[in-house]
Design a protein that fits this description.
Blueprint (H helix, E strand, L loop, with lengths): L2 H7 L6 E11 L2 E4 L6 E3 L1 E2 L9 E7 L2 E9 L20 E2 L7 E5 L2 E9 L9 E5 L10 E9 L3 E6 L4 E7 L4 E10 L3
Parallel strand pairs: 4-6
Antiparallel strand pairs: 1-2, 1-5, 2-3, 5-6, 7-9, 8-9, 9-14, 10-13, 11-12, 11-14, 12-13
């Protein structure tokens, strides 16, 4: 058995330790452990780590691995409250608990609610609504959205310039698109 496999499959208490630390840098990933003044290199599969996040770590042998985020400080633009954008181009916002909304959270831009659309869409790349600069991702991001009534899906692009557009739809008719997404802003 390889030494690495031996460390993971047959760990001894002396070789495995659990830690909590703070992300010091993201590229390359380094973490500061409590009681130290040095940043230790680490690896992770956790997406979108940011400087200042408190993370759970495991050390197996010499390898330090970030398992996940315990606490994320507020994103610089975090508002906590919902903003209700005004849909464009024949789209209208849902009502009540389905009202179209977004907010900036510690994890990124949260989109929720529905937009009501025309029975058919003449073309894709039709703008649904726009986001202000503080709520825009660093790069274009495509997300899959639910549709009704025929349980098919569509694809929406949240663009770095703030436009939120329908970029793909399966054939068929529908009367709304559902948003329930968190999009990284970094």
């Amino acid at each position: 058995m390889s030494e690495l496999a031996d460390l993971y499959l047959s760990p001894s208490p002396a070789r495995v330790t659990w830690h909590t630390g703070t992300v010091a840098t993201v590229s390359p990933l380094t973490v500061r452990l409590p009681g130290t003044d040095e940043d230790a290199p680490a690896v992770t599969l956790a997406p979108s780590l940011r400087v200042g996040q408190i993370v759970q770590l495991v050390r197996v042998g010499k390898q330090l691995t970030v398992l996940g985020v315990i606490h994320a400080p507020e994103h610089p633009g975090a508002s906590g409250g919902w903003t209700y954008p005004i849909p464009m181009n024949t789209w209208t916002a849902g009502t009540g608990s389905y009202r179209l909304r977004y907010r900036i959270t510690p994890w990124g831009l949260q989109l929720a609610g529905r937009v009501l659309g025309p029975a058919t869409v003449a073309s894709t790349n039709l703008r649904i609504f726009s986001l202000p600069p503080e709520a825009r991702p660093a790069a274009d991001i495509d997300i899959r959205v639910a549709r009704n009534p025929d349980a098919r899906y569509g694809q929406v692009r949240v663009r770095a310039d703030g436009d939120v557009t329908l970029t793909f739809e399966e054939t068929g008719t529908y009367n709304w698109i559902q948003f329930a997404h968190i999009i990284p802003l970094d």
